Amino acid sequence: MSLKKFLRLILPQPSAHTASSFERNDLAQVVMQKRNCVQTLDYHVVEHCNLNCKCCSTYAPIAKKQFADVNAFRRDLERLKALIGNRLLSLHLLGGEPLLHPEIEKFIRTAREIYPDIYIDVVTNGLLARKMPESFWNTLREQNVVLQFSAYPISLNYVELVELVKSKGVRSFTFRGDQRIDCFTRKGLDPNGQQNMYASHLHCASGNTTQLRDGKLYRCPATAYIFSLNQKMKEEDPTRPDETFKLHELDTLDLYQTQDAQAVFDFLSNAIPFCRYCTCSTISQVPWGQSGKDSSEWVDY
């Protein structure tokens, strides 16, 4: 099915008082944000986490324990470079909690080997930092990779952790500086898929966080890891379909079926069909807390 036909089937018609010119066009005619590079690439070395954050954007509290394969990572990153060359600006190795992966050092070295000049970091909540072996710190230092802390309001002294990193000769970065991440942004998902995809796209805070998983690019964490939420919803209610939130073929870009860089940048420049699930009206700041692991944290029923 072509993109135009798909949009005519699923895109709700906006009312006259909310309609704008781009909402009345089909996706092929609307370039939401023209791109000529991949600004940020996320790669999850694990899906699960050792910190149970409410409304986690990657569904880590309900994700199954899963470790990425470093050989698959190498293949996919090499394929991406074959397509776009050096037009990748930064790479984040994260999760879940990346320090849970027993081969995290191999991922760091592989990333730096393929992209010797870009900014690379490992994004961690810091809980395992003091337990990491000396080889981990040597790898970060030798490969010029930054350790980025997401500082949550937990009983962990991030100031001391930063000093520890410095003592190892490694660069560190703390998201939001001296402030703790005391709130998460929640954008509810509409299981009926009745949202205006263009409006959702324009209000999206994840538009620059391209995801790489299993040989495919995804526009945002929600599309890349929606399978965890679908599984959880099925567990909660066995009468539900296996996939409440369905990925259309146009929601992903298969790197091995793509021939050139322009196809990559075109994919990253526009809204995608999955945007019809994301609501703009229920965006809210949720105080950080422990997840109850209930799908209602992410779904607007």
Can you walk me through this structure?
The longest helix is centred in the last third of the chain and has 16 residues, at 221-236. With 301 residues, the chain is of the alpha/beta class. It is 29% helix and 14% strand. Helix 3 (70-84) runs parallel beside helix 4 and helix 4 runs parallel beside helix 5 (134-142). The protein is globular and about 50 Å long. The two termini are 29 Å apart. Residues 7-31 have low confidence and may be disordered. It has nine helices and ten strands. Strands 5-4-3-2-1-7-8-9 form an eight-stranded mixed sheet. A two-stranded antiparallel ribbon has the order 6-10.
Q: How does the SSE layout of this entry go?
A:
Layout: H1 3-10, H2 21-24, E1 40-44, H3 70-84, E2 90-94, H4 104-114, E3 119-124, H5 134-142, E4 146-149, H6 158-167, E5 172-174, E6 183-186, H7 197-202, E7 209-213, E8 216-218, H8 221-236, E9 252-254, H9 261-269, E10 284-287
Parallel strand pairs: 1-2, 1-7, 2-3, 3-4, 4-5
Antiparallel strand pairs: 6-10, 7-8, 8-9
Helix pairs in contact: 3-4, 4-5
Q: What is the tally of beta strands?
A: 10
Q: Strand percentage, roughly?
A: 5-15%
Overall pLDDT confidence? 88
Note the total helix count.
9
Strand order in the sheet with the most strands: 5-4-3-2-1-7-8-9
By helix and strand content, what is the structural category? Answer: alpha/beta
Main sheet overview: 8 strands, mixed
Low-confidence runs of at least 5 consecutive residues: 7-31
Residues in helices, as a percent range: 25-40%
Distance between the termini: 29 Å
Cα Rg: 20 Å
**Helix-strand pattern:** HHEHEHEHEHEEHEEHEHE
Task: Please tell me what the overall shape is.
Answer: globular
